[in-house]
Amino acid sequence: MFLKEIRINGFRNLSSQIYEAQKGLNILIGENGQGKTNFLEAVYYLSCGSSFRASDHKVLVNYDEKHFTIEAVNNIKDKWLKAAVIYERNKGKKFSLNDKRSAYSENFMNAVLFTPDDLYLIKGSPKQRRDYLDYGLKQIAKEYYGYFENYGKILKKRNFLLKSEQTKGGLYKTLNDVFIEQAARIILARFNYINLLDDVLKETYKSLNGGGNQLKIKYALSFPLDHDKINLTILSEKIKEQIDLKAGQEIKRKSVLVGPHLDDLHIYFDNRPARQYCSQGQQRSIAVSLKLAELCAFAKIKGYYPLFLLDEVMAELDENKRCLLLNYLEKAPFQSFMTAVNSEYLGELKNTLLTVIDNGVLKKKGAV
Questions:
Q1: Is position 119 within any domain?
Q2: Beta-sheet strand order (sheet of 100-102)
Q3: What is the pTM of this model?
Q4: What is the largest CA-CA distance in the chain?
Q5: Do 131 and 269 have their domain in common?
Q6: Most buried residue, 48, 183, 271, 366, by CB count within 10 Å?
Q7: How many domains does the chain have?
């Protein structure tokens, strides 16, 4: 995927901006509060239909405007597309593709995002690691989005019936059967995805660190599974077994105690838990490697790379890791957009487009 041009109007402090990107690495430089992250947020919004910083879309509209628009020209597999979204405070959002009204599900663009919050992928909560897996899967498998949405609704209903002590009727039994089916599909998809990520991760980590350390990830179920190979039947049987086993506890605690919403992703550095044995610097490098693995896994499945968006990553890495990352991104077969407070950490760049952003205004410095 290649983003050639993006036009942003009325989005946060980006009043009216046109940005022409280059293939490879594009870097936006500016002091805090000038709009660097807003630019990445606009690209992400057109890619994903939502913001990574705000759940209320209204706050994304410039204070002096009634709506915002984001338009982009991009190329996917040698096919040029014009994607656009308009959001109005009182009417919501509308997407279009090649000037025709379109549903967001048609995938205008795809993007993998790295923010400082992702540094907590290793030492943060299991939910952050589950979100990492689910976001990646939603981008590469349309059916997974359906499984995930259905599971969330059924989980909510199961919790409601447990809280209201309605666990003896036929409705609860039927709901359990559907719950088991959706839970098994999600777990199996995550297992398969992690196997792909694990293969890719070995190379991405090596490229960013240049050392002989080994990185490995494994899916951690919230219940024991005594099978070397898994499939939907085995998973369904095991989940049902666990529901029966924990029925009394669920009724007592009035909460669902079995399912993929309780699972985790374990990360190992030289066969040791990275959460416990890695330094902060190592954890940061692992987090970036995980995001790159997500991007490369997408390419293996879809046949093209998504955009790579990196917000303020340079300040989080030491000098050697910064040089390795910049060298990797300049030579990578995908397009990247990175923000930085200044050029202090950028070193010697050979084929990078630098743009200064000042109070929401983009000013190109040119390729270096």
A1: no
A2: 14-20, 2-11, 67-76, 79-88, 92-97, 100-102
A3: 0.91
A4: 69
A5: yes
A6: 183
A7: 2
